[in-house]
Structures are given as structure tokens and as C-alpha cells.
Design a protein that fits this description.
single chain, alpha/beta, Rossmann fold, 8 helices, 12 strands, 29% helix
Length: 318
């Protein structure tokens, strides 16, 4: 199974979730990725990170393509990391929550929102659609959703264990605090030149009911993917109304058609101008913890019976 991250902190927490680490293996000469190999539950996992400072759809596609050169038996992948949340009255998304891509309507779960054409009156019309994840992953998602209706999710425990097993990752396993989770009104921009929100107008914070527990909530739905960072509240809200997305990120659109995968994003900001990095480590950990919980319920026999990614691609091209 291939696990792709965009940032070093995302790769660090992914490695921290492994049950066992393996020695490196010879690579295809055309594969320039750098891997950490290991076992998660019954599955062998190859973890790769995008090149430092080089994010986006194209970079993710290149990493996935090279991964397939070395690991020719891959059946599916995971894209795990952080993203910008899209809160609404229907979806009470908070920092540290997890958003998982799930097909809806004509979408396979990921929408490339910057790929399309402008039509009359300046409206943007998306052209084309991206593939959905393979059934083995969607079946596991359905199973895990049902389990979470009955039993306490293991996600929070995995996050806590991360810090105890790996002291250098203790920051990633520590909830930053509800007092640092501020959602500002969509038309209120962050003051130019200010590094934090300490000088932001507290009266422009959206009032939300307190949660009974601090444990991350998992949300399922559409994820918007594009080559630019979303950092404007009004644009976020407009695209939410247009596409009903729960999260913005920058890599998944480069993967879905040639690297069948599920996208898992920990929410580190609200895709507006009030971005900061305070929640990144914790959000990366909650996303990795969900991925671990999901993989632990997938029997190895189901993976073996799933077509290899190369076979899927050739079948699609027929």
C-alpha cells in the first residue's frame, strides 16, 4: 500500500503510526522518491513525501507515478495530511477534525476546483471529473462509520500513543486548546503584516456551541483540490455553496485517476486569511490516526484480491 504525504510533519506522524519499520529496498532507477517502509496492522506500507518546498497537484502525481515504478504490486494508496476546513451550519468542522473523501453525486470524492472554464456572467464551470477510490477502501470506510456509531473511535488513542512512543512527536499528539480555535466571519480579513490573530477583532469571531468532548470528529464528503492555497473566507464560502465541499487541499487531484486512493485530511485552518501553523502537527496526527484505524480493519485477503494499480489503469484505457 502506498501512503503519500506533502509535508515532512505529515510523513513524521505517518512513520510514528507504524507498528513496525522495515529496511529499505532497491528502487527502480527512475524512481527518485525517498521511502520509509513498514507494517501497519496486516499491511506493508511504503511512505513517501513530496520534495521539500514543492507541493501541488503536479508534484503529487510525479511522486505517485515513480512509486508505482518500484512497488509494482500496489493495489491502492492513501493521501494523508492537513487541509483547510470549510465549516457551515450543516457541517460543524473544527480544527483538529478529520475530513475523508467520499463520493457524492457525479463526483468520486475529490473535485479539482481550478480546472474548468469561465462561462457567461463570470460563472466558473468545471469540466471533467476524477475517479473514486477503489471498493476495498470505500467498504472499509462504511464499516468504520458504522463502528463509530457503536464504539469509541480508536483515533484519539492513536494520537495519544504517538507522543508516548515518540517523545519528539509529543507536540503532534497534544491538542492545542479550544481557545486557539477561532473561526472568523467570512468577510473579516486578517490584518496585513500580523503573524498571529492576537490583534484580530474578537467581535468578528463566529460564536459556536462548545463540544462536550475534545476528541476529533470525522466528516465524510467532497474535498476540493487545486494548485493554489485557499486563503480567503469569501471565496471559500462561495465555492462551498457551489460544490458542497468540506475541505480544501493541494495534491489529491493529481492522484485520483492514476493512483486510486482515499484522501484523509486533518483540519489545521479554515482556508481563510487567518492561517497559521499552530494546528498543523496535531491535524497531521489526527489524519494519520484515522488512516491507521481504517487500515487495521481491512483484511489482507481483500487487498490481495484487489486489482493492481497498473491493471486498473490498463483496464481504464481499454
Amino acid at each position: 500500500m502506498g501512503w503519500i504525504c506533502a509535508l515532512p510533519i505529515e510523513m513524521a506522524v505517518a512513520v510514528g503510526m507504524l507498528d513496525e519499520r522495515h529496511d529499505s529496498l532497491p528502487q527502480n532507477p527512475h524512481d527518485h522518491n525517498n521511502y520509509t517502509l513498514g507494517r501497519l496492522g496486516p499491511h506493508n506500507v511504503a511512505i513517501a513525501c513530496l520534495p521539500a518546498g514543492v507541493t501541488g497537484v503536479t508534484s503529487a502525481a510525479r511522486v505517485a507515478s515513480q512509486m508505482r515504478l518500484t512497488f509494482t504490486g500496489l493495489r491502492f494508496g492513501l493521501m494523508v495530511g492537513i487541509g483547510g476546513g470549510v465549516p457551515s451550519e450543516e457541517n460543524d468542522i473544527r480544527l483538529g477534525d478529520v475530513v475523508v473523501s467520499q463520493p457524492a453525486g457525479t463526483s468520486g470524492g475529490v473535485i479539482q476546483y481550478d480546472f474548468g472554464k469561465t462561462v457567461q456572467e463570470g460563472q466558473f464551470e468545471r469540466t471533467g471529473s476524477l475517479n473514486r477510490p477503489p471498493d476495498v477502501l470505500l467498504n472499509a470506510v462504511a464499516n468504520l462509520k458504522a463502528r463509530h456509531l457503536v464504539d469509541e473511535p480508536a483515533l484519539a488513542r492513536y494520537v495519544a500513543d504517538l507522543g508516548s512512543k515518540h517523545p519528539r512527536l509529543r507536540m503532534a499528539s497534544t491538542y492545542p486548546g479550544v481557545e486557539h480555535d477561532q473561526l472568523f466571519q467570512v468577510d473579516y480579513d486578517h490584518p496585513v503584516g500580523k503573524a498571529s490573530c492576537i490583534d484580530c477583532d474578537i467581535d468578528r469571531v463566529v460564536r459556536r456551541a462548545d463540544r462536550e468532548e475534545q476528541s476529533p470528529v470525522v466528516h465524510y464528503g467532497l474535498i476540493a483540490s487545486g494548485n493554489q492555497v485557499m486563503r480567503d473566507g469569501q471565496t471559500r464560502e462561495r465555492l462551498r455553496r457551489l460544490m458542497n465541499v468540506l475541505c480544501f487541499e493541494m495534491e489529491a487531484a493529481g492522484l485520483m485517476d492514476d493512483f486510486p486512493c482515499l484522501v484523509v485530511r486533518g483540519i489545521c485552518d479554515y482556508a481563510d486569511s487567518h492561517k497559521n501553523k499552530q494546528w498543523q502537527a496535531y491535524a497531521a496526527a489526527t489524519a494519520a490516526a484515522y488512516a491507521k484505524e481504517l487500515l487495521n480493519i481491512i483484511p489482507s485477503s481483500q487487498v490481495v484480491s484487489t486489482r493492481q494499480i497498473g491493471e486498473m489503469a490498463s483496464k481504464t484505457g481499454e
